[in-house]
Design goal:
Blueprint (H helix, E strand, L loop, with lengths): L6 H12 L1 H19 L3 H15 L6 H10 L2 H9 L3
């Protein structure tokens, strides 16, 4: 079933994808704070999974580096990546 969007909806969708890198960078910065506050546990595990998903969408994503970062749970490196807008 084809979806037909109004011009306004098309504009919103287009702007979302146009600014997705900035949205992802901001979300990544928020996740750094959330991970720091969560410490260790299930919530931190879910947040690190989100980190992998967000970093995987980056145009220059290297799955091996992402997996290594998530496995090491290196919050300082993640904060540097988030600060540089990957």
């Amino acid at each position: 079933m084809a979806k037909h969007y109004s011009k306004h909806q098309q504009s919103l969708i287009r702007n979302f994808y146009k600014n997705r890198d900035a949205i992802d960078a901001q979300r990544l910065q928020e996740i750094v704070t959330d991970i720091y506050l969560a410490g260790q546990g299930n919530k931190a595990d879910r947040l690190w999974k989100r980190v992998a998903d967000i970093l995987g969408r980056a145009p220059n994503a290297d799955p091996k580096q992402i997996a290594g970062l998530v496995e090491a749970r290196d919050l300082e490196t993640l904060a540097q990546i988030a600060g540089s807008r990957f």
